[in-house]
Amino acid sequence: AGIAKKIKFNFGISSNYFLEIAKFRAARLLWANIVASYDAKGGSDEYRCAAKMNIHAETSTFNLTLFDAHVNLLRTQTEAMSAALAGVDSIAVTPFDKAYQTPDELSERLARNQQLLLKEESHFDKVVDPAAGSYYIENLTVSIAKQAWDIFLKVEDAGGFYAAIKSGSIQKDINESGKARRKAVAQRREILLGTNQYPNFIEKAGGKKPVASCPCCSQEHEKDVETLNFNRMASEFEALRLETEASGKRPKAFMLTIGNLAMRQARAQFSCNFLGCAGYEVIDNLGFDTVKAGVEAALAAKADIVVLCSSDDEYAEYAVP
């Protein structure tokens, strides 16, 4: 019990709002059960006190972006909110510019004020376990606790955490999870605003470059174990857009919108977003009466790419070679 009281747990916070609330509650449940199992007397005050989990939580860098970086403020605020609602003991909010530079005075001040706002203006520190009684969160808590305990037992059966680290099984599972998230972003099944959806078409990186992750150990110590992939979810999209910008010429994509109003607007929006994510200059239009008028406008704009935006039925009429 004496040792348990002195242990402090550090957690990361991801962007899945309700899942994060349930995660912290599940961790407390599991820790209380572990500590209680060492209580020979059963229900003693000493062990009951030791079963209280001391949690420090830090917002993620995995979903931070270089482009449209101020959206990172919304991401970290949502993450901090979920941790506060889960009742963690302390929170560190990551400055919004950490993905591309050493945080400056402004970003660090904003990061401090984000958590102070939750405490002083939103009063998140005044209610104990506000999520209690929520059917969804309660069931999610139990589900996470069960799955986490199954993983814990699996690791113990394999020789414990140190053996799992040496064998690389834990790193492999973490890397596979990260790979799946990056694939979801690449396929736009998971959205990163300003990066793989709704980019700022006129934004330029300028001197901003992604900050490489620094290993905490020397190469000498790393060579015997499998390493983790610390690349952010936005890294591949950012590399594509930075390469376009570095070429010195942004290809122009002209939206030749014609025909059915609803369908041409939908196709144009999709195409603008798709090409804008690669750093292309997009030229949208209100619509043309004829293909000839659209082609003439595209030539006048000196477009490198012309995207015909219309309905499926009308493509057969307008997209004639």
TrEMBL record:
Gene3D superfamilies: Cobalamin-binding domain (3.40.50.280), Methylmalonyl-CoA mutase (3.20.20.240). Its EC number is 5.4.99.2. The keyword Isomerase applies. The keyword ATP-binding does not apply. GO terms for molecular function: cobalamin binding; methylmalonyl-CoA mutase activity. Keywords: Isomerase. Coiled coil: none annotated. It is an enzyme of class 5 (isomerase). Residues 3-232 form the Methylmalonyl-CoA mutase alpha/beta chain catalytic domain. This is Methylmalonyl-CoA mutase. It comes from termite gut metagenome.
